[in-house]
Amino acid sequence: MTTALQPLLLLLPALLLVAGVFLWPLLRYGWLSLQASSVLTGLVPVPNGGANWQRLLADGRFWQDAAQTLRFAGVSLALELLLGLALALLLHRPLPRRGLLRAAVLLPWALPTTVMALGWRWILNDPHGPLNRLIQGLGGNAYGFLSTPATTWLFTVLADVWKTTPFVALLLLAGLQAIPAELEEALVLEGAGPLQRLWRLTLPLLAPYLLLAALFRLAQALGVFDLIQVLTGGGPASSTESLGLYAYLNGMRFLDFGYSATVMLGMFVLVLLLTAAVLLLQHGWQGRRR
Amino acid sequence: MKRPPHLLLLLAALLWSLLPLLWQLITSLRTPEALVAPTPAAWLSGWTLANYRQVLLGDPPFWRYLLNSALVGAASTGLTLALAIPAAYGLQQQTLRLQRLLTLLLLAAAMFPYVLLFLALLELARLLGWGNQLLALAVPYAGLSLPLAVLLLRAALADLPPELEDAARLEGLNLWQRLRRVLLPLLAPAIASTAILVFLFSWNEYPIALTWISKAELLTLPTAMARIGGSSVYAVPYGAYAAATVLGSLPLLALVLLFQRQIVSGLTQGAVKG
Amino acid sequence: MVLAAALALLLWAAVGLARPRPVEVSVLMPAPFADATAPLVAAFNRTHRDVQIAVTRGPLDTEALSDLAISSLLLGDTPYDLLLMDVTWTPKYAAAGWLEPLEPLLGDDAMEGMAVGAQLGNAFGGHLWRLPLLADMGLLYWRTDLMDAPPRSLQELAATAADLKARGEVSWGYVWQGRQYEGLSCVFLEVLRAFGGEWLQAGDRAALDSPAAIAAARWLGDLVRQGITPAAVANVSESESLQIFAAGEAAFMRNWPYAWRELQKPGSLVAGKVGVSSLGEGTQGSWGFSLLRGSPHPAEAAAVMQWFTGEAVGRELAERYGYTPVWNSLLQDAQLEARLPLLPVLRQALEHTALRPLTPVYAQLSDTLQRQLSALLTGGEDATEAMAQAQRQSSLILRSAGEAP
To answer: In a structure prediction context, what are the per-residue pLDDT tens digits for chain A, which is 290 residues long?
Structure first.
């Protein structure tokens, strides 16, 4: 074995597995999306001349879910960045029992989504959950939080923010710790207030971290599945259904693999477009600042 | 600088993250009657351990799910590290252009919303007969964790002074010896960080476990929780749910307390070098 | 030596034959049915030595039950012999190749003596796949204190309802299920049939843009527009409509047979003032058993299925829970009628039921129809436009799923 080949050989098994898990499905979906592969064909793929894509374009449920998924991702991403930044600034200061604090803040992120989704269902229970207890204690009437579209949606967002803010905060904390203290002190000497310092120093230097957190969270939020499936099942009347859940239902419930693959590719294109949009936006923003 | 508001904010942050969990703990210790009691007077009575008994003596008992998750987590972590450590080293040796390309691809894969993959992976499971094989889950899990693992380990490798390995090479150590005696010990902290992140991912993974496992006694924790949640009838056993939530959270609480330093450095390393 | 071996074998066989291990037939059912049949199953297991029934109490939510069954069937091995299924699932499961045809085990006359309306939906593609445990159908509930006889047509129903509301006798004329869910499809199908329309023609072509379908959709939309039905119907399912009717706020209600018992309970303001009649063709809903392919002991499983769906169990379930029996002998039984006053109505309703399309892609077709109807009810979309959309999307679904164009 030559030494030039060795590094490649070390890399190969991992790359093969990664390709098998990520690349193969996408190629397979590309092929499946051009086939009818459903119960009507006995689950055997039969070419159907692009009918899946025609259907996707006309499918009210796909576009409704796409809009809902976007709204969910956009709002939770914004909240997570905002709260995550606040939490990071808070944790950046010298604190007693820092390790314990970090562990406490991290816990929601480390728990399986389904575990706490079940917990939220109890907290939001009508009328016995603690939230309704509180409302009743204050003299109000119990409210079916998970039976009207607006509040159900709100709580899916909140549950997601609760779980993923720690992740964002920790990423940003790393960024904060990389900012040299002298720079901050220099600005203090110039007489800049805390908000000015945040705007002129912290945020620009934090930008790469914010971008990374935003990209990570955006892709994950667009793929939201566990939380929605367990907390709301997509209801009421599919008002909280995400694209991931719709793709899952098409495959596992409707047994229409051809269309399920098409929905997933549609979702993949959406993720790509949005990621590109965020990168372009950031590019333009940085360009203007320079 | 003003201290008190700062501490108050911190308290608020702690309440925000811990209160929902605390409420699950309280709920898990109450009788069904106490949970639905209409008057505040009854809120303080009716404490019980019956919910835990019910969950632990269920069919299958709850610890079974924890065990399943732990097994899958351990196997996935082992497989991931076995592939990622050589891969990170191999990546480090490539030309700069190839390195950048591969890093970018790995980063894209690490961000990928992997729920998209379930259908093709389910087909694979059927094809290979891997459905309802607990340890087979380690293969897709390793595949999904590898991008991040390789990136983290490569970032750590890049931090090591290159002279170290050159010296070892001059001493006549072969590749395996260099890895084993020089690089691995130096990489230990990064490996620990990577391992804990991979383990957490496998422990929490849902869509693939949901489609690969249907037998009740093989379910991992997340799928078992979802199934418990879906089977509610008439009087909803929220006390038992809550007990399951608490039992399902305890191992993670322990992990986070023990390894928070590694978790944080793993996450941030990825950010800095990725 | 050979002799000894043969002797040992004979002895072993004799012992084995003398004490056969009981065959265990495992059944997956939604929790309410598992609970309702539990005492009967326990009795069966006490009296049968060779066959034992093991019931798995599935999720309450019927879709979750289907998900559970499908996830094991997709992986290729199911731990169940029998599955209790909703009528709309049968074609999907049969087409996926997961069911065993029943006529080789039960004969061609397995449904002889069953009410005509209950027979529908069990056979598909030339085979029998399912035997019903109980029947269900849409019924019209009306107030005996506000009218002497139920209306004989939809036009009469709308006119009476409008009149009673105009005179201030009730807040609302007619309540039904208008939320975007399966119940809305059931309501629409009944109106569609009253107008002489079909959902699918020749079994595989959508016919939702026919004049009858447009008229049916318009009729429902007009009920809301004219205030006969509350606009809130767009968020009303069975339980909410029952609530409104039980509070005496409506003259008519469309619901399933279970509502009758609820309306006689103490909290109801209309107890003793409720008449029930058939809707002409009420949408059929039923639960029935199917035999899953790959069952290691199909003969025993079929026997258990016959016991479950037989007259004895049917009588018990009708008496204890008011489940609608499927056998003519029970529907005409005077003793049973004494305990179940609704029986004559059910018997009559079961003579003509409307079956939701027997197609493996029913769930998708129903979803797309619900969407258009919901838009019609809430956004005031035009009926012609809504039905044209439903037609177009249904055709796309059928084509993309592989139905011949």
So the answer is: 445 677 889 999 999 999 999 999 999 999 999 999 999 998 899 999 899 999 999 999 999 999 999 999 999 999 999 999 999 998 888 777 778 888 888 899 999 998 888 888 888 887 778 888 888 888 888 888 887 888 999 999 999 999 999 989 988 988 888 888 888 888 888 888 888 888 888 898 899 899 989 999 999 999 999 999 988 888 787 889 999 999 999 999 999 999 999 999 999 999 999 999 998 988 887 766 65
How distant, in Å, are the alpha carbons of A116, B230, C203 from that of B225?
9, 9, 41
Considering only alpha carbons, which residue of chain A is nearest residue B205?
A112
* Contact between residue B79 and residue B139 where contact means Cβ atoms under 8 Å apart: yes
pTM: 0.90
Query: Residue C70 has which token pair?
Result: 């499908």
Contact (CB, 8 A) for A106 and A160 = no
Interchain proximity C360–A43, CB inside 8 Å: no
B66 within a domain of the structure (yes/no): yes
C-alpha C116 chain-centroid distance: 14
Residue A262: its chain C contacts at CB < 8 A?
A: 400
ipTM metric: 0.91
CATH class of C138-282+355-400: alpha beta
- Annotated domain spans of chain C: 22-136+284-354, 138-282+355-400
- Full residue range of the structural domain in which residue B214 is found: 48-273
Answer whether B175 touches A (CB < 8 Å): yes
Cα(A229)–Cα(A218) distance, integer angstroms: 19
Query: Quick one: C22-136+284-354 is in which CATH superfamily?
Result: Periplasmic binding protein-like II (3.40.190.10)
Looking at the complex, report in whole angstroms how far the Cα of residue C123 sits from the nearest Cα belonging to chain A: 16
